[in-house]
Amino acid sequence: MPAAMNTKTAAVVLVATLAMAGAGAGIFLLTKSAPEGYSVDTELQIFGNANGDWKLDGDDVDFLNSIISGSSDRTTYADANQDGVVDASDVEQVQAVIDRTAEYLWLVDGDGNVKKIGLDISRIGAEYYSNTELMCILRLQDKVVAVDNAPYQTRNFYFGEEKGSEITNLVNMNAPNYEFVAGLDLDVLLTFSYSGTEAKQEMLQDVDVIYLGMYRPDVLEPEKSEYLQGILKAGYIFDRVERAEAYVEWLLDIRNDIASISSGIAEEDKVNVLMTNYSNSYFSDENIMDWSVYTKIDPQVQALLLAGGHPVAMDILTEEQYNGGLSRTLYAVKVGSEPIVTADIDFVFCHSVRYTYGGTVVTSTPDHGYGTGDGTGMDAAHALAAGRPLTDFVEDGNIYIMAGDFRNGATGGILHAAYIAKAIYPDEFADFDAVAIHNEYVSEWLGVSDYDVSTDGVFISPAV
Questions:
Q1: Average pLDDT, the chain
Q2: How confident is the model at residue 195 (pLDDT cuts 50, 70, 90)?
Q3: Which residues pair with 64 in a beta bridge?
Q4: How are beta strands 332-335 and 291-294 bridged, if at all?
Q5: Are 81 and 93 in contact (CB under 8 A)?
Q6: What architecture is the 265-461 domain classified under in CATH?
Q7: What residue segments make up the domains of the chain, in order of their start?
Q8: What is the pLDDT of residues 383-429, one digit of tens each?
Q9: On the CB side of 241, how many CA atoms lie within 13 Å of its CA?
Q10: Which CATH homologous superfamily contains domain 5-246?
Q11: Cis omega before residue 339 (within 30°)?
């Protein structure tokens, strides 16, 4: 993140407050456990970032020299080579990172673990949509050799037909076949979730297993999110620093555009919105009486808050539940039907997953996303959900079925917020074009040409 972004980030947080007012192959990674109560620093968590800003550059070299001379105090990330002292060898390491000649990089991963990552990388495995899309964003398609079953279904979209035919299916990375994965000779495996990452590292000692943090965006305080850190860290790991910084700038520009409108919506004028799911729910099966209510730490509620809506979860759940629990791992809470049907709800958005991280297919969920242009299934799902007896509390047109790509892709809730804003505040966002932004994401960032999300993909029903 360029130094200039510090000012932008401060502005982002201010607007958000207003809106809410009311080492390489063959080397085993050295890992240190996350400190208790781990939280993200508001500085780039790469060792060598001596001056505590958002990038490694000549300013860090100067600051390291000032620490060595005794004119400045040692800082959190000054020990670039993690040998316990700050000396000339740290200056050499930082300069090598700047010059792109470094052999390794020490950093804090997305779950607070200190890791040493080898930088000689030619074979990448990527779990789920967020990591797969990030590799496309950083123009690393040629180095990706394997993805899990979900993005594998749309491999031709992400990589093109020729490269797509060469991609290996990792299948179920929630419970991996380690012998199979080890045989792929990966240099790096990017994990989808923080859960189980270290167990994978123990089983794959010749692979650098990295949880970047893509699972945990925070559109309200982006400078404190593992997600934003993860994008920037990936820039240094894969020698794509400028591209990563540009992508973060693009995301924050869109986020600011949305917040600049939603911040003008008075608290009493905000619509009440339930963020829930379609897959394995009452909407798809009337015999299921428990409803999933997503919490504030989930990207869906994050997106809603950015769009200016009031989460019904805030009224239904306890404060602790709504905030994600004490461990900050509670993304959804199951509740009975009564608190749902008796609540004041204006809109419902249903998250959909067809291909799971566990390698299974949810047959009750219609096909959607980048791999299909046929919206018949999504429209039928909407009609089914709107026709359920217990959904009379909301108008049929105000129930939306959303593609899982929004929550599980690499935009960190930003695209999701764009579509939600258009749906719940059509007048306020009349000049805001969510589809155009989505198309820009596909063409400029994913690198997919001749694709129109409004005709070649299926992402929301009814359309906005």
A1: 91
A2: confident
A3: none
A4: antiparallel
A5: yes
A6: 3-Layer(aba) Sandwich (3.40)
A7: 5-246, 265-461
A8: 999 999 999 989 889 999 999 999 999 999 999 999 999 999 999 99
A9: 14
A10: Nitrogenase molybdenum iron protein domain (3.40.50.1980)
A11: no
